[in-house]
UniProtKB/TrEMBL annotation:
Residue ranges of coiled coil: none
ANK repeats: 3-35, 36-68, 69-101, 102-134
UniProtKB keywords: ANK repeat, Repeat
InterPro entries: Ankyrin_rpt (IPR002110), Ankyrin_rpt-contain_sf (IPR036770)
A Pfam family reported for this protein in Swiss-Prot or TrEMBL: Ank_4
UniProt name for this protein: Ankyrin repeat domain-containing protein
Entry-linked PANTHER family: ANKYRIN REPEAT DOMAIN-CONTAINING PROTEIN 39-RELATED, BRCA1-ASSOCIATED RING DOMAIN PROTEIN 1
SUPFAM superfamilies reported in the protein's UniProt record: Ankyrin repeat
Length: 161
């Protein structure tokens, strides 16, 4: 079983759907954790493997699982800028207000890295603008600090709803 689990990480990293299916059918654990604390879902989503991510979710992968630093798949795709995967994760119940080890959220990642399409998506899904990271900063504070006026406008638009 352990070998199936380790093979699953390689298959999801490259998006080898037939191998993923075979491994899951043979008992690979879709919620296994590697030495770095990653789950197959985190690896698939971070490597922009949309269909592998979908397959894992449909096989019961925990959409809110986190790595050793407290980062979820949603946080990773908000950092990387993968809108379709973020939409998929949210449609499967990803908690967009979870905080990682330093208190950051998916919205904060999207804001910090100028992923304004993701800022809008997260706001549409009810991201909490009141959450503060360990430094006491909100996503809006970070947008101002980073010089991301578009994110500021998007968040302000939702503050007035």
């Amino acid at each position: 079983m352990e070998d199936y689990n380790s093979q699953l990480f390689g298959a999801v990293r490259t998006g080898d759907l037939s191998k993923i299916k075979e491994l899951i059918e043979n008992g690979a654990d879709v919620n296994t954790i590697d030495a770095r604390g990653f789950t197959p879902l985190i690896v698939a989503s971070y490597n922009e493997q949309l269909e592998a991510t979908r397959m894992l979710l449909e096989a019961g992968a925990d959409v809110n699982a986190y790595d050793a630093g407290g980062n979820t798949a949603l946080m990773g795709v908000c950092f990387k800028g993968y809108l379709p995967i973020a939409e998929l994760l949210l449609s499967h119940g990803a908690d967009l207000n979870l905080q990682h080890g330093n208190g950051g959220t998916a919205l904060m990642f999207a804001t910090l890295f100028g992923r304004n399409d993701l800022v809008r998506l997260l706001m549409e899904h009810g991201a909490d603008l009141n959450i503060k990271d360990n430094r006491g900063l909100t996503a809006l504070d970070l947008a101002v600090q980073q010089g991301n006026p578009d994110a500021v406008l998007i968040m302000e638009e939702y503050m007035n709803i």
